[in-house]
Fold:
Amino acid sequence: MRILHEGVSITGRRSNNEDAVLELPERGLFAVADGMGGYEGGEVASKAALASLQAYCDMLDHTGLGLSQMGTPEGERIARERLELGIRIADREVRRRAVGDLRKMGTTLAALAVGPTKAMVAHVGDSRVYRMREGEVIALTRDHSLINEMKTAGLGATEADHFRLKNIITQALGQGRTVMPDLTAVEVLPGDRFLLCSDGLSDVLDDEAIAWAMTSKHDVARALVDAAYAAGSYDNITALVVTAAEGD
Structure:
């Protein structure tokens, strides 16, 4: 299997781009971060988190994140622990830099670590990972958001639609408490296509619209970003598409 990847990030209708993208195909690691905070703090936070994650990967030995052994329970455990540690280190780095005018900054993170037969999906906040298989798109992450916590507590669909604080997230890197990333191992089949995106995309495109854009043969990430912009997104828009292609 060959891993193909393409990422596009645009400022959109905002004045600056607080999203960031990490593509490390040699490590099998891909990530998107969406920063927040005044005085350009969001831009600093997202870039710092991904730079920290890359530095962590660079210091690993030749086995990297352990993705080649994910076909076994022990290999999956190792990959999970290594990726989670990288995210926790990134969280500490953002918190370390959150001083002075940057004290309110933070960032979401969505990551995908792809091995030969399985991938590890990780996220903090509301940046998402989707998978498209045979034309069907499903979300592999569940937003760390106040509205999702309220739904778990019994908030109905009608109430959720009118919930005033629906955009508040409950976890982010750099926000003063240790993060608890969600990590999930998923099967990877030839032809699978993964999307990592910021909420500037997922807030305006439903699964059907994402699936339509992801059927493009070329420039899939650009097609997704353009679709989100055309749908009226007022945020930065980022799409990172990772495809498990057949062949070596």
About this structure: Residues 2-245 form a domain with the Phosphatase 2c; domain 1 fold (CATH 3.60.40.10).
